[in-house]
Amino acid sequence: DSDDDEPHHNNHPSTTKSLLCDQTTQSLLELSQTLTLTIEALLVDIVTLRIRLYEFLRWFSYTVSATKAEGTAADSNERLTAKKKRCTTGLVQRVASFLADG
Known about the structure:
mainly alpha
């Protein structure tokens, strides 16, 4: 049983070889930073889209209810439903803004 057949493991920093060269390491670091920024921008876009979709659907639901309520009695269910779904001026302005901007 000789230990000569087994590779010697020396973890001393001056004798350890890097798995990747410095240029590859730097390149991978830059790529990972770019990927991180891209993913972050994508998440911002997803959250923005979700908010816009939610607000658009609220406005659309109110518009449909208000249209159905036109010409009905003041105390009709259609008018009550439209009143409950009424949107704030701010929401209407945001929807109008992002629809106009594309």
